[in-house]
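fyi for ur records
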Amino acid sequence: MIAILSISCERDDICPDSTPTTPRLIIDLYNSESPENKKNVFDLVVVGVGNDFILSDYNFKDTNQIILPLKTDDNTTEYILIKEAFINDNDTPDDATDDYVDGNPDVITINYSREQVYVSRACGYKTIFKNVTISPDDDDIDDDEWIVSQQPLNPNQSVENEDETHFNILH
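which gave:
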């Protein structure tokens, strides 16, 4: 007697790529002198505070929109946004070990409350963020703040999906 065993995944054991997961914060960048017009930031580098990683999507990028992941295990996420960034070789062009990113940095602090939402058995839970605020740090690393102001698109701004802009930053 021969027994045939078939192992396969049930349809709901696989989370489809099209299923919305934990959303990222979307920020559009506008001209502070003409607030109805978007304005690029050139050579933008975004660094996570506390872990010092550079977001790969924002490594010397020209853009008028920033999409940032938020921490799902904390109610605060901080980033350093470096405008007109460049690699400073520390006056040792033959030694890359002491090179660092330089430019015009501004720190933003993003505060929020978190809520876990059940998606499905295959996808598990996602985090949505409520009462989101962005605070540019007035006590920045330099004296040349380039972020003039920020505006939430809704009062008590929440981040529940990536289909819409959540904040505008004027610079």
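The chain has a mean pLDDT of 89. thats all i got for now
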